[in-house]
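note to self — DONT lose this again. spent like an hour looking for the file last time. sequence + predicted structure for the chain T wanted, 435 res
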Amino acid sequence: MNQQPGESGESSGSAGSVESSGPAGSGERRLGTREAAQLLGVKPATVYAYVSRGQLTSRRDPVGRGSSFDAREVEALARRSRREAAVPVGSAGELSVRTSLTLIESDRYYFRGVDAVELASRHRYEEVAEWLWTGTLVRGARFTPHPEALAAARRAVAALPPHSGPVDRLRVAVAAAAVADPLRFDLSEPAVLGSARSLIPTLVGALPEVGPSQWAGDGRLARQLWPRLSPLEPDPDALAVLDLALALLTDHDLAASTLAVRVAASARAHPYAAVSAGLGALEGPLHGAAGRLAHRMLVEVLERGGAAPVVAEYLRAGRRVPGLGHRLYVGEDPRATALFARLEPLPQAGPALGAAREVAGVMARHGGGLYPNVDLALAVLTVSCAMAPEAGETVFAVARTAGWIAHALEEYQERPLRMRPSGQYHGPRPPQPMP
């Protein structure tokens, strides 16, 4: 963009790049106001608006009378601005957010370009989380809670009423862990990753135990989570299914809870607060409760000896049959396909797996066009292993925490407060009489 001389009120000494006035040999390249404006494609006055909003830092030029800017900081802002300008609004008017984490297309989904089902089938949840966070596969990755954070979370959760749900406990645990972390306001990538590697096992460790935990010293998250879900002793195959479920659920693009996390991160909320935002959205009946409903439906099918009367009652009452259909997949949810395949060899999963397939078959015969989704597959796991109906919610929330952290990290690299849509006012026009 061509600017006329004098338009910004800056002297000619600030027009071009200048050498750093910092330590000798630092090699820092600095830009004058006009050069920064040209690089950003804005007027010089807008450069100072960026400074006032905290998007750029300026320094008085000791040679001229204007300000200078770190060239790398200006270039980074220019790249972000170009990315945001290239992101269209969806065809239905929904917000579209550029991300490098998860791609969903052609009934498959990918983590950083790698087939997510294949990745989750070969690697444990912690390794998949590290891949999503950093793009590096850390073999044998283990997450360890900070002792003070874990103790604080356990005390807070223990103070809740006995009827508290899993998301209630997790929200309280996140808040307690945040207070115990004095570095929570450090939004640098190493600090956020350090908090994440402690927070996830803290969430698990804060949940009450319902089963034996003789392997409490085992660092694998699936092993730590099992006694919080099932009163049964796990066999290796059942544990492998739980670990697979955690890995498959790590992320799934911009679900409602993930968008809530990105909004919080856009306002530069610390990672604990961003995770709390995700848990708040997850508790909505249209997002996090589907697994619980599918569990109860499978139990009813098993008790009544068939799916047809149960499905009929759902449809007669005008209710949606849980565990079927997904807006992002035409056919079967690939996460469900992977879990069903891993559940197949488990003898204890036979009845619930048969009930799930019968439900899907009844709906298919009536031309429903709906295929099993991951909630139905999770319900097979929870019913088969004597878990509570809300166990699927717990698995989902713990698993998705890693994805929320990944999205928060990505959002911290974007312009602050960019998640600020404009309201379309439809109320009475002013002036109105004072009430």
